[in-house]
Write a structure and sequence with these properties.
single chain, alpha+beta, 4-stranded mixed beta sheet, 6 helices, 4 strands, 12% strand, SelWTH-like, Selenoprotein H
Amino acid sequence: MAPKRKQTTACDSAATATTTRVTRSSTRLANSTVAPPAADAEPPKRKKGKTTAATAVKPEGEAKSLPEQAADGGKTIIIERSTECSRFKTRAIQVKEGLEKGVAGVKVVVNPEKARRGCFEIREEGGEVFLSLLDMKRPYKPMTDLDMEEVISDIIEKIR
């Protein structure tokens, strides 16, 4: 059974009637009426989301987009690689370095947009697809069977 309430006297009830209960919401309301927000105060800054290579703001010197770069005479090669394993990354870097050494004036871009899962694809900007391995599952057998030096030399021949 719950304990009985204590009997309050007249002076105790008058003291409790004048004091109010302080809560978080009541203090917030009291503080907001005391100090109104300044009209010239800056609004809070928004958090910026992640930017991709395609949507990133470029400095004035790099204002050209990928199709405009290709129109200047240099070819643009796109390597689309999955981000789920480092094997894709090592092969993409190997192909990029090989193409930049083998062909003068070629631009090699790795993942200009979000890559597909299990994908390793090498293609020319708006044109020919040199290598396309899609929807690979672990252990990525089609990719590991490739001789990357041979693939690089074949692409260089097709570009020239």
